[in-house]
Amino acid sequence: MRLITLVLATLLILIQLPLWLGKGGWLRVGELENQVLVAQRKTVELKARNAKLDSEVHDLTNGTGAVEERARFELGMIKKNEIFIQILDADGHPKESATPLPPVKPDLKTTP
């Protein structure tokens, strides 16, 4: 009787091993769920980025405000009949702007 119980318990354990450790086991399911969560977070970030880029494209194609803003900040352009005022510090160097300028992007299309 003891031997039969031991054999049945061993068989039960052997049957359970693939459920826990096998290809479709619970541990693998947990890993896959974590991968799905990471992919969903990345998707949300990319959708937000795409929406921002889509909005920027829409502004650039349909309005003059975005083009004007880029011309002012990236190219330093001013409108006709505008007055440009630059405040210098005690050393004669330009003061830092209260509103930081966007980073300058290197021009890949340089023409001599």
UniProtKB/TrEMBL annotation:
Q: Which domain of life does the protein's organism represent? A: Bacteria
List residues in topological domain: Cytoplasmic.
1-3
Membrane side Periplasmic: which residues? 22-112
GO cellular-component terms in the record?
A: cell division site; cell septum; plasma membrane
Give UniProt keywords alphabetically. Answer: Cell cycle, Cell division, Cell inner membrane, Cell membrane, Membrane, Transmembrane, Transmembrane helix
Q: Which Pfam families match?
A: DivIC (PF04977)
* Keyword Isomerase (UniProt): no
* Annotated InterPro entries: Cell_div_FtsB, FtsL/DivIC
A Gene Ontology biological process noted in the UniProt record is: FtsZ-dependent cytokinesis
Membrane topology (UniProt): Single-pass type II membrane protein
> Quick one: where's region Disordered?
91-112
The record's subcellular location field reads: Cell inner membrane
Hydrolase recorded as keyword: no
**Complex formation:** Part of a complex composed of FtsB, FtsL and FtsQ.
Q: What does this protein do, in the record's words?
A: Essential cell division protein. May link together the upstream cell division proteins, which are predominantly cytoplasmic, with the downstream cell division proteins, which are predominantly periplasmic.
Of which family is this protein a member?
A: Belongs to the FtsB family.
Q: What is this protein called?
A: Cell division protein FtsB
- Which organism is the protein's source? Massilia atriviolacea
The primary gene name is ftsB
